[in-house]
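Hello Y.,

Per our agreement to keep a running log of every chain we model this quarter, I'm adding this entry. I've kept the format consistent with earlier entries: sequence first, then predicted structure.
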Amino acid sequence: MIEADYSMTQAIRDLKDRGIPFVIHSYKYEDRGGTGVAARELGVDEHLVIKTLVFETDAREPLLVLMHGDQEVSAKNLARTLGVKAVQPCSPETAHKHTGYMVGGISPFGTRKRLKIHMQRTIADLPKIYINAGKRGLLAEISPADAVRVLEPVLVDAAG
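Predicted structure for the entry above:
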């Protein structure tokens, strides 16, 4: 089921290929607006809007982190969980290189490279989530259970 007009993205293709039921929601993207703008435009709780962040370990290994829109990732907690000295967010150019998506449009679905995914464990308890569909201003409404089943993320406590 699809709402509004949208363009096909690699993330949407991946959702379809994996048989994940979804609803696409589009909104007017604002630079630096983040999940707050998405939540406001869609009329949903920002806690349900999930951001996909690209981090690198101190050994320069990339990974994705899925976090509630109204929470921040604690690099210290994440590094401790991963058993590494440090992690840091990737630059927009590096994030694009690893995922094939522009910052503001990064989805955990259909990434250029298969990346390890770490998901804030409380996301799995939500009734539904709104996650990027591969383009700025485009979110897919899906079941967190489907995301866990398909993405096979490591569930973590990385909120700061």
